[in-house]
Amino acid sequence: MHQRKLEELLETIFTEKEQGRDEGAGILAAVAEAHAPDKSSEDFHELSRLGLVAFDGDKVRLTAEGESAARGVVRRHRLAERLLHDLLELDEEAMEDHACEFEHVLSEEATDSVCTLLGHPPTCPHGKPIPPGECCGLFAKTVRPLVTRLTHLELSAHARIVFVAPRFHDRMDRLAALGVIPGCEIRLHQKAPAFVIEVGETTIGLDEEIAGEIYVKRLN
Question: Which CATH architecture has domain 147-218?
Fold first, then answer.
């Protein structure tokens, strides 16, 4: 089986599993709609012969080896989406087209470099989790991230909010009501006892947990 086809199938099995779907027919329909119409049930048997999937009746599950390979494809795709959306500011269609190419060509080293430059984002632009890599657990970074948490900014730093990844959905609504949204520019005035930022002509205080959920790109 061609490597690209193999990766597309593994990616679809992984993403369908995220949605609680694991029936073979549904996965085939999803991969045909998203990528190409030439997939068949025989492809699953080929993946099984390669030790990447196993069957339970009409359900398909990833083996440990298949899960690892699928996570890698999904990680590359979602990091590419972040890069193309947040830094290159491509529209949705162009972002998705290029991300589908990047997921097949980025090496592990290049993927970790992109992740580090982006500040190890936890989610893609659609809010789906990005599988972490080894680089996400390292404390020493040789490259200064282009995107970082608000809590890592220096005092008086000027930055633009790239994305917000709150643990609780209502926090996003509260921040939006204050004008703290992706694309807006901020300046950090204080870090203790609370984080104080300036948004336009408004000064806003944030506790450390919420400030840590705001990812920004330095402008100076």
Answer: Roll (2.30)
Digitized pLDDT (tens) for each residue of the chain, 220 residues in all: 688 888 988 998 999 999 888 887 788 777 766 655 566 778 888 999 999 999 888 888 999 999 999 999 999 999 999 999 887 888 999 999 999 999 999 999 889 989 988 889 899 999 999 999 988 876 445 556 788 889 999 999 999 998 888 878 888 889 999 999 988 999 999 999 999 999 988 999 999 999 999 999 888 7
Sketch the domain layout of the chain as residue ranges. 3-62, 76-137, 147-218
Structure tokens at 171: 């926090």
The full DSSP string for 24-59 is: HHHHHHHHHHHT-S---HHHHHHHHHTTSEEEETTE
Strand order in the sheet with 185-190: 147-149, 214-218, 158-164, 185-190, 195-199, 202-206
